[in-house]
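Structure tokens please, single chain.
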Amino acid sequence: MAKNLFLNNLCNHSIIAAIFSKVSINGIYSKVVKSSMAEQKNTPELTIMQVPLMEDNIPVSTSPVSNNKGSLVTQAESHKSRDEIDKTSPKIVLATLNARFFHTSFGLRYLYANLKELQQYCEIQEFIIQTRALDIAEQILASNPDIIGFGVYIWNIVETTNVVNLLKVIAPDIKIVLGGPEVSYETEQQPIVDCADYVLTGAAELSFYQLCKDILNKTPPNKKILNSKPVALEDLALPYEYYTDEDLKHRLLYVEASRGCPFKCEFCLSSLDKSSMPFELTAFLDEMEILYQRGARNFKFIDRTFNLNIKTTMQIMQFFLDKMTDDLYLHFEVVPDHLPRKLKELLAQFPEGSLQFEIGIQTFNVEVQKNISRKQNNEKSKENLLWLRDNTSAHIHADLIFGLPGETFDTFKDSFNQLYHCRPHEIQMGILKRLKGSPIIRHTEAFDLRFNPLPPFDILSTDRVSFTTMQRINRFARYWDMIGNSGRFKYSLPHMLSDEPFDDFMAITEWIFNKTGQIHKINLKKLFELISQAVEALFPEKHQLVIEKIEIDYKAAKLKSLFSGLNLYGVAQVETVSKNKALKRQQQHMS
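Here you go.
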């Protein structure tokens, strides 16, 4: 769920169905290379080399590098390290194309952790999808690899295909290995697979090691598509020591106490899991202790059902509560109808700014829930949402999906209204995506599901929702993200909306779109002006009160008065305090 709902549907811990996980470097080419031997575990320590890119994505300099012992390598030493790396010619490059700077590559570090003796021949290179394919190819080829592994996802399939095509033209002898959920299903039909030498499907932490070993020993397999066997969690080397000090300082760290999901929601790849499997708790908490002692403070748990086993959940949360600091931040995905009393008592002890919960509602419509095999106690879910808002300081991010089989405009409106009155800080409205391998496709004919043939494969229409209506909801979701979810309008928005908030906000959505024709690139000042004008035109009886509240929001955004620099209502400026840039959006909602 996070950020984009289709990423959630992919399953954020998609290393279960992939060889690589998402990482993003904002305008930066990032490279993880072998360094000195770690004293404690006798394994290669990682160093991240980052090359900032100009607007045309050409590397211009090498920044200081942090190693796991906390020291900084100077620019000259960084260049020297790169020269030494070139001489050793790493045989394996693990590469990925991602979206944002503050993500870390959990899956790549898992692969590296399980490469055993091949670690010394491996490096990780991370890029963002905005980087030119030619520049990515150049950086990868500079390492002179024998094997390049790519993680392929719904968000990078186009860009990764371009890079793979280039690499095969420039250096056809290099073996290219693909993995990830986007190529783990319907594999043979995909153009990127035609360009690759091998594709690993499934959980590939161990099978990638074996494939690399076979290739380097000149005994490669004689078929392209290789299905990975299920992995026993106790057989995996954990990746946490391969988070660098720079990761700990500047990025969100992905961690997992369990894998899999016992539920069977058909829009999600996790529905293919047989059950949820826990990691050994003591070993997991030992790793969290090491990360914490090294300075880690931002932890994103990618467990699909974090509160499934309440005893384990409470042990993990108590572990962090005992270490609570002002800058500690924990992110969990929780089942909305399963919050027993003991867990509630523990949650109530966490201070403001320390917890975020992602809560997947998806729909409150019982018929639609049945269509997608989703089991959810709606009344208990609403009760728990309200309890969390009234009794904890947790930031609540709740999800809805539009376009599910059997969903109509009116049933979605009803779900939105019910969820809005539960008062989550954010309502993420995702449009249904066709994830390769997900069981949702069984409804294609019965409900006339028509998906975009291009990534991200979002639904265009159904038997009950026209393309025009789908576009209206898309715009509604986009404006809600800018206005409702941003926290910029927390004082004024409640006064714009009535007991039927969906209808009111749809009216605002259509007024702004008719006025501007835009759903992107509307600056904050302009957005305030548009909302003020929309309310005056649509709800004149509310205009005076809303304007007063908008002025408070405007000043809270640290902008000058909306009204010609004058404070018409004598409202004092509201100060906002940010303790962590990664939490800026969440903090907009907190009083």
